[in-house]
Amino acid sequence: MYGSLAIPVKQARLQVDAEGYLSRTDTTRADALRAVLKKSALVFYGWILSLRFAPSGAVAGAGREQAQAAEFRDDAPEVLHTLDHFAALRAEVAKNGGRLVVTYFPLSYVVHPQDEARWRHLGVTNVAAQITFDDAMCGALRARGFECVNGTQTLLDAARASDERLYYWLDIHWTARGNEIAAAHVADSLSASGSATR
To answer: What pairs with residue 191 in β-bridges?
Structure first.
C-alpha cells in the first residue's frame, strides 16, 4: 500500500485469477468504462480542477482513492473497512497457499517536506497526522495477527541523510535510490520476521 493505509470505503471482493493476479469479482461495464476514461488526460485534469473548486476531503493525484487521514480510532469507518479488506485478502491469499504481508510506504510529501506545497491543493492538509494515523493502522493490523511493514521511518532517515531525492519531483514514483531503500527495507523486515524463508 502507498499513500495511506486507510481504505475509506468498503472494497470489492477479490479473487486470484488463472494467471495469479488479484482481480475483482464484481466488475461492471461502468467500472470498465471508468477505467478507460481515467487514462484520458482531459478527464484526469478536469477531475483535478473539479476537486480544487469542490474539495471532497480526498487526496487527488495519488493514483488511487485516498482520504486525508484523521485521528486514528478503532471504530472509525476507514479503520473498519481497512481491517475487513485485509482480512478478506489474507483469506484469499491463504486459500492459494500464500502468506499475506502488508507493506506500506508514504507519498513524497511525507519524505520530502519541500513537496508539501505542490500537494496542498490536492487535499493534503496535515502530514504529521497522516504519519501518526498510518503508524497506528499498521499497529492495529499487527495486533490482529497481520505482518505489517511500515517503511516511513526508513525513507525519512534516508532523506535526512542525503540531498539525493527518493521520489521524483513531478511524479509519485520512487527514483532508483528510493527503490533501493524501499526494497532493502522490505527484504530486511521479511528476513528478520522469518517470512522470507516460509
So the answer is: none
pTM score, whole prediction: 0.74
Cell of 107: 507519498
Report the candidate in 83, 80, 84, 72 with the shortest Cα–Cα distance to residue 136.
72
Phi-psi region of 184 (alpha: psi -120 to 50; beta: other; left: phi over 0): alpha
In terms of Cα–Cα distance, which of 167, 53, 70 is closest to 125?
A: 70
- Spell out the domain ranges in the chain: 14-197
Burial class (CB in 10 A: 0-12, 13-18, 19+), 38: exposed
Q: How confident is the model at residue 165 (pLDDT cuts 50, 70, 90)?
A: very high
Distance, CA of 135 to CA of 5 (rounded, Å): 9
What confidence tens digit (pLDDT) does each residue in 67-114 have? Answer: 666 789 989 888 998 999 999 889 988 988 889 999 999 999 999 999
Burial 81-108 (b: 16+ CB within 10 A, else e): bbbebbeebbebbeeeeeeebbbbbbbb
Residue 71: partners with Cβ closer than 8 Å, 6 or more residues away: 129, 133
Under DSSP, the state recorded for 67 is: B
Taking 80 as the threshold, does the pLDDT of residue 157 lie above it?
yes
